Amino acid sequence: MGIGTREIKATMLAMLIAAALCLQAARGKAEGQEMLVVAGGCFWCVEADFEKVPGVIEAESGFAGGQVENPGYKQVTRGGTGHLEAVRITFDPARVGRAELLHLFLRSIDPTDAGGQFCDRGESYTTAIFVSDAAENALAETAITEAQKALGQPVVTQVRDLDRFWPAEAYHQDYYKSRDTVLTRFGPRQKAKAYKLYREACGRDARVRALWGAAAPFAGQS
After folding, report:
1. Which of 76, 85, 88, 90 has its CA 20 to 30 A from that of 35?
2. pLDDT tens for residues 94-121?
3. 26 by DSSP, 3-state: which?
């Protein structure tokens, strides 16, 4: 016996109501979130640092600033795409502000280095703060001015307009805490262990501590 027209209409109405409720919930969640995109050299390291910050919901590795659509890691690191390794930080502004995140970011990198970051050299590893409007631009410029005063030397980190953020391959997400095994120059290692070996060998924390001293927020916490 077939389903009657009334039953079909009732089912469709229920589905529409459920979809509307889901959309409303998603909008409510998004309204309580903001995003900040920064480039600070190795995106594994920036992601690992900022996922420790209270109020940060997620940090995602990816690329920004270039002309190539949907770039891949090997393509970007070879050069020529214009993209930088970047991280999209999703945060709750009621718990941590954009200005505070920018303060932490500039003290977690070497903002005086125009050629890359630590052992990673080349355009794709240079530093930047990406902005979407005049208010974000003003906050970024203020953060850089304050960092320059604190260091007493020029800061070369750029403020750049955000066109689009492209997430990196799934392989790179949460690298710092993954238990998957990879082959490294140290032999087979879990990604989490390989990440720690890389970070130490690259000299990231040592350089940040030397530059920022007690103001370095993440050095030694990896």
Report:
1. 76
2. 999 999 999 999 999 999 999 999 999 9
3. helix
Which residue type, as a one-letter code, is found at position 152? G
| Sign of the torsion formed by the C-alpha atoms of 169, 187, 198 and 56 | positive
Position 198, amino acid: Y
Residue 77 exposure: Cα atoms within 13 Å on the Cβ side:
10
CATH number at residue 54: 3.30.1060.10
Q: How many domains does the chain have?
A: 1
Q: Contact 78/43 with Cβ under 8 angstroms?
A: no
Nearest of 87, 90, 95 to residue 34 by alpha carbon: 90
Instruction: Give a yes or no: residue 11 inside a domain.
Output: no
d(CA 93, CA 125): 28
Residue 128 structural domain: 27-172
Measuring CA to CA, which residue among 87, 107, 54, 55 is closest to residue 174? Answer: 87
22 is catalytic: no
Tokens of 158: 């750029």
What are 112-168's pLDDT values in tens digits? 999 999 999 999 999 999 999 999 999 999 999 999 999 999 999 999 999 999 999
Residue 79 lies in a domain: yes
The answer as to whether 19 is a domain residue is: no
Task: Kindly state whether residue 133 falls inside one of the protein's structural domains.
Answer: yes
